[in-house]
Sequence to fold (265 residues):
Amino acid sequence: MIRHFASGAAALVALAIASPALADHPIAGTWKLDPATAKLPAKPDVMLLKDGTYSCSTCTPAVTVPADGKFHKVTGHSYSDEISVTIVDPNTVSYGYRLKGKDVSSGTDTVSADGNTLTSSFKSTNNANGTPVDQSMTETRVAPAPAGAHAISGSWKPGAVTGVSEAALTVTYKVDGDTVTMTQPTGEHYTATFGGPFVPLVGDPGNTMIAVKKLGDRGIEEINKRGGKVVGVLQVNVAADGKSAVGTYANNQAGTKTTYTAYRQ
Fold:
């Protein structure tokens, strides 16, 4: 499932929002994302597996590798530098990901018997603590596979996300005046200043840099940068009752947006 996860976290991992207990800002406290509320991008995923070659034109960046079960070098991906694609059967393909010679993630795509539903599963330890993280997704076919291509080929519209590990759904922020400290169960963390410079997301395999800003009285904006370029922006606004928050993540690389609701824990 190169298209969903090679750029990092599983999409929902990147979106999980939470925070701890000082009351300087409404975002302070612990929150947990509800995957059932996620509105995924309408932009379809486009893949082709034919004549022994796998390609994903909507991956960021695009991927083309032999589907021979061997690892092949890829460039421009923050969370993997080698990818393998294995044809399991006429309806199933498995993927492997390495970073700096280490196996970090794996995934499987399975097409339903009628050819119209794609079920993707993903497992990763590609985080600071090596914590196992699982995630699944279903997609609906919106364009057919070319003649002679594997069943996973064609265009797929993202659907429901399920089976997401607890560690991927929660994040904790402490707010003390203008200082924000974020920690995740998987071990990544940063301390930044509202309106201040970019700081490292410590422990992140993708070497992300973070800058944070206030959004009015009840929101925050988290800007993500890699390789000197802004790759995504997360905006979170806390409801007036303080019990829920709506987040929107703009993926600048893919040109997509995802929204979700998180609940205070």
Notes: The chain has two helices and 20 strands. Helices lie at 2-5, 11-15. Residues 3-22 have pLDDT under 50 and may be disordered. The radius of gyration is 19 Å.
